[in-house]
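Run log // design_07
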């Protein structure tokens, strides 16, 4: 374990089962890695780590995360929650407005938690390998978003409001049962890559050619 003055704690793959209570005493911690430890829960005491910039809870067995996670308003760099058993998130996480990277892949979300659309600072959002059937119109609130990774969900379309994401460069829709796509995507000014591989249910819209003509890579 790091001493109290050390800003980085790495407990990756230590077979912990539970988080040692001593972790919550390190209030100067800036990066905390608890990945791959068979964790089923995380204490509300995590809210004491006010200086956290990066938190990795990936590759565990979490069915929920504590409300106190929303108290970590200084979390700016990364929040990894992938490869767990999550189907929802506390509304308090909407307070993480400075967070730039969020990974919710490989969970059990049937819909994108509304709190995610409150994370206005997100630059990259990963929600691949979930049973998500639709994305909310409030996705438009993520005005800084550059990458949206939705591989292997159950999406049949996207909301037209996605066109409001003027910074979006990369949309990964591989392996979704898409039936239609909003034509507004063709007007997205900074889109560089639209990945539609392994999509077998879509009649390719004519405007894909317009995207390609202006230099956007369309994979199909």
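design_07 sequence
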């Amino acid at each position: 374990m790091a001493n109290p003055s050390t800003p980085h704690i790495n407990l990756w793959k230590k077979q912990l089962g539970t988080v040692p209570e001593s972790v919550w005493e390190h209030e100067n911690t800036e990066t905390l890695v608890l990945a791959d430890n068979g964790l089923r829960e995380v204490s509300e005491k995590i809210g004491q780590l006010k200086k956290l910039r990066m938190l990795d809870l990936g590759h565990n067995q979490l069915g929920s995360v504590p409300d106190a996670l929303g108290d970590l308003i200084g979390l700016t760099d990364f929040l990894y929650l992938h490869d767990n058993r999550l189907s929802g998130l506390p509304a308090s996480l909407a307070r993480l407005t400075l967070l730039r990277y969020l990974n919710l892949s490989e969970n059990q979300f049937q819909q994108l938690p509304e709190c995610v659309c409150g994370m206005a600072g997100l630059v990259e959002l990963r929600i691949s390998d979930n049973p998500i059937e639709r994305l909310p119109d409030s996705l438009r609130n993520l005005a800084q978003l550059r990458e949206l990774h939705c591989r292997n969900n159950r999406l049949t379309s996207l909301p037209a409001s996605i066109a409001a994401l003027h910074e979006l460069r990369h949309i990964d829709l591989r392996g979704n049962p898409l039936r239609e796509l909003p034509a507004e995507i063709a007007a997205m000014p900074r889109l560089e890559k639209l990945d539609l591989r392994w999509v077998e249910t879509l009649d390719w819209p004519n405007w894909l050619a317009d995207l390609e003509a202006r230099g956007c890579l369309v994979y199909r």
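The chain has a mean pLDDT of 96.
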